[in-house]
Amino acid sequence: MRTFISSFLTDHIRTNQLNAVLRFGVNFLLGVLFIHSYMTRDEVGQLEYALFLAYTGSFVFTFAYSSAILSKINESKSSFRTALNEVFWQLVGVGIILGIGLYCGLHYLPLFGVDFIDKQFFLPISVLAALIIIVIPAELYYIINQKAKPFFYYALFIHGFLLIAVAIALYFRTETTYILYIYIVTQVLKLSCVLFQIKPR
User: Fold this and answer.
1) pLDDT tens across 135-156, in order?
2) DSSP secondary structure, 91-117, as one string
3) Which of 32, 111, 128, 144 has the greatest count of CB atoms below 10 A from its CB?
């Protein structure tokens, strides 16, 4: 068992796989918790729609910029931090534009007969989508620099925090929108990792 765990502390590829498994596992467990919580089916549906929109709205940019970051760093003659710093500010710009665009778009959807999500979700959805893009470098930093050990602790902390925080919120029967704000706080924690990693200027 000790050998198995230690392999994640020395091999960044295995740690990245663990991170993906934790992400899937935590999201699956949260889905089960939502269904068996105090929330009605409509509230669960609203929450899942909100998360779907936030992650879907940023998915294309996340995939494209992950590849762009790797390409930028490979081609750059400057240092790793300098190259990642340039990409970070691009991500901030794209994230803000996407967030504003998504927020405005959600307000105009009812004009086209699409009214499946409550207005109270519009702002947290937009903020979450923007942050998902801005924090793209967080995990890539560990992968590119082959920092398996800090990546391992990062994965445990981020996914563990999300699971525990949401579970506590559900236990105390908080409002549905508060669940989204926990997702936002999780992204803010990732952002703090990015700021520490590359020290943007």
Assistant:
1) 888 888 888 888 889 999 999 9
2) HHHHHHHHHHHHHHHHHHGGGGT---S
3) 128
Side chain identity at residue 27, one-letter code: N
pLDDT at site 112: 61
Return d(Cα 132, Cα 54) in angstroms, integer: 8
* Helices 137-144 and 176-198: angle between axes, nearest 10 degrees: 40
- Which of 99, 13, 10 lies closest to 54 in space, CA to CA? 99
What pLDDT is stored for residue 144 in this prediction?
81
**pTM score:** 0.89
Are 84 and 69 a contacting pair, CB within 8 Å? yes
Tokens, residue 169: 């919120």
